[in-house]
Specification:
- There is one protein chain.
- The chain has helices at 9-20, 23-35, 42-68, 75-82, 89-92, 95-119, 124-127, 132-143, 155-173, 175-203, 215-223, 233-247, 253-258, 267-285, 290-308, 310-324, 329-363, 367-387, 393-420, 423-431, 441-470, 480-508.
- It has 514 residues and is an all-alpha fold.
Length: 514
């Protein structure tokens, strides 16, 4: 069965950029910058981008295309194609399917809130909310955490979840070209237009009572450097973590997307373009909406409290309160939440593809069968987030699927690409079909600096946090049974994926000799 292909270079660039552009660009990034030295945070941020993010982007585009030449669209087969003599390396590649599944089963539920909140400004009770406590009560009622005057049950949230989940499956059912590429070609330009409208509106805000609380001073608050923060190792780790988060590297998604390229497709320029698109969305657009708007309303002292509330409260509580106080506030609220929903959708559909591609490529299942199996399994698993949201389950899923798995996977693939596959062969493969030539110092960076950077991150985490994390320290007694249950389920998922990889190889045998 012939594998799918992208319809155009623009399509794959927008799809990869769509995978990267998500909630982190508009919510997580400005909070991280304010918390970690403002403008000074951009120093480790851009160092991490050039030494970690862009090299990993190129590595994943290259090995994805290489593995696709052997008919593999996921990390187990791609890793095996890079190290043919090692019979166990494919099991490390399981992380590249495991991570996206784990993220998907909670991310889609949060994404569904954004779809719901796109319509909530049309509700009279939501329009009348004027305080932070009321907005928190509305959100908690919607989540089913409490019953109140806004919601009597979790049913509305569950209905929006089903709609969002079905929408994701519908897109991936239509495949790479007719599904993912078509949606991203519409969603990404729409997202950028909405973001630009919000940026323009925010930059024209005024506070008549406090003229110094201006958007420009808000930008100054965000970007004025506190260079003393550079002495703190956690600032550097936060910057590296944000680069991982924002570029969608280390998940396994880019490998799968790149596997649908041909040998003649340019991975260097395409990878650089998609990364640049994401950085524009994050640094220019994401940095020009939330913090300047909050600064105008809360001032220099209040903005620190806003940042300490975290990205989640910023998106669902603070920003709606700000926007609803403006002329045509309902319109800007709808734009805000639909912007975030589009960013979430282009990311979540990318999380579906590794598992679906694995079933198609390794078991010769049809698209319909692969999507059906993936949908049933993930729908059931998603109820961990739906039913136990307030029990620490989402934090547990986010850590193992969206943080730890990313760093481990990126470390393995970088060493495999640079040292096992070989940097000379890797360099030649990267430039195959390329319209640009990389500076030779990037060969040194990819072989030495990037893997060393990743190993240091792993070692730092191991020394500081491994024992407390594995021993479940810091988790409340009320949440402990739910967190333990989640870990057991994650272990079962990982083992099941390893068994599936073993079965697929037993049925087809080694496929790299031809």
């Amino acid at each position: 069965m012939e594998r799918e292909r992208w319809g155009s270079r623009l399509g794959v660039i927008l799809a990869v950029a769509g995978s990267a552009v998500g909630l982190g660009n508009f919510l997580r990034f400005p909070v991280q910058a304010v918390r970690n030295g403002g403008g000074a945070f951009m120093i480790p941020y851009f160092i991490s981008l050039f030494l970690l993010g862009i090299p990993l982007m190129w590595i994943e585009w290259t090995i994805g295309r290489f593995g696709g030449g052997f008919g593999h669209g996921t990390a187990p087969g791609i890793f095996q194609s890079l190290w043919r003599k090692n019979k166990f390396i494919k099991y490390f590649g399981v992380i590249g399917i495991f991570g996206p599944i784990v993220i998907f089963i909670y991310y889609t539920y949060i994404e569904s809130w954004l779809l719901a909140y796109t319509f909530f400004p049309l509700r009279s009770d939501f329009s009348q909310i004027s305080t932070k406590d009321q907005m928190i009560a509305f959100l908690q009622g919607y989540q089913g955490v409490v019953k109140n005057e806004y919601f009597l049950s979790i049913l509305p949230a569950y209905l929006f979840f089903i709609i969002t989940f079905a929408l994701n499956l519908t897109v991936v059912y239509y495949g790479i070209k007719r599904g993912i590429e078509r949606v991203c070609k519409i969603a990404m330009p729409t997202l950028f237009i909405f973001a630009l409208i919000l940026v323009i509106r925010v930059l024209t805000l005024k506070n008549e009572a406090n003229p110094d609380w201006s958007p420009l001073n808000g930008l100054g608050f965000l970007w004025n450097p506190d260079f003393s923060s550079l002495k703190d190792a956690k600032v550097w780790l936060s910057a590296a973590g944000q680069i991982f988060f924002t570029l969608s590297v280390g998940i396994g998604v880019i490998l799968t997307y790149a596997s649908y390229l041909t040998k003649e497709d340019d991975v260097l320029l395409s990878g650089l373009t998609s990364a640049s698109t994401n950085e524009f969305a994050e640094v220019i657009l994401g940095g020009s909406i939330v913090i300047p708007a909050a600064f105008v309303f809360f001032g220099p002292s209040g903005i620190k409290e806003v940042a300490d509330q975290g990205a989640f409260n910023l998106g669902f509580i603070t920003m709606p309160l700000i926007l609803k106080s403006l002329p045509f506030g309902k319109l800007f609220e709808i734009l805000w939440f639909f912007l975030l929903f589009l960013a979430g959708l282009t990311s979540s559909i990318s999380l579906c593809q590794p598992a679906i591609a694995f079933l198609e490529d390794e078991f010769n299942l049809s698209k319909k069968g692969s999507v059906l199996i993936f949908g049933i399994v993930c729908f059931l698993l998603s109820h961990l987030s739906v039913l136990f949201l307030s029990k620490g389950v989402v934090d547990e899923l986010d850590f193992w699927g969206g943080t730890f798995a990313l760093v481990v996977f990126a470390t393995v693939e970088t060493i495999l690409f640079s040292w096992v596959f070989g940097i000379e062969k890797a360099w030649e493969e990267m430039h195959s079909g390329s319209d640009i030539t990389l500076p030779k110092f990037y060969k040194f960076i990819i072989k030495y600096i990037t893997p060393l950077f990743l190993i240091c991150i792993l070692l730092f985490w191991t020394v500081q946090y491994a024992i407390p994390t594995f021993l479940l320290r810091g988790i409340s007694q009320g949440n402990l049974p739910f967190v333990l249950m989640t870990r057991i389920i994650l272990i079962i998922i990982f083992i099941a994926l390893c068994i599936l990889v073993k079965i697929s190889w037993s049925k087809k045998g080694e496929r790299f000799e031809t």
